[in-house]
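Worked problem 6 (solution included).
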Amino acid sequence: MEVNKIVQELDREIAMLQQARALLSGSSSARPAKAAPAPGRRRKHHLSPEGRRRISEALKRRWAKRRKAAAVKSAKSTKPAKAA
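Solution. The predicted structure is:
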């Protein structure tokens, strides 16, 4: 079992025990614990428009560099043959 899953299970058990303790002690100020997210589900990370633009520009520069390198390589390999 992965460490993250173990920690999630422990947190879930702690929340349940705290809720049970609050019910048994009759404390009216106790709020029910937030339900832990279902195991295996992760929150999505959202990019800001600026971050998305920066990544897009970086990828365009990367691919332009690769195209340029490929063009230079193909130009060298397609030298005209000498006439005999």
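Discussion: The mean pLDDT is 83.
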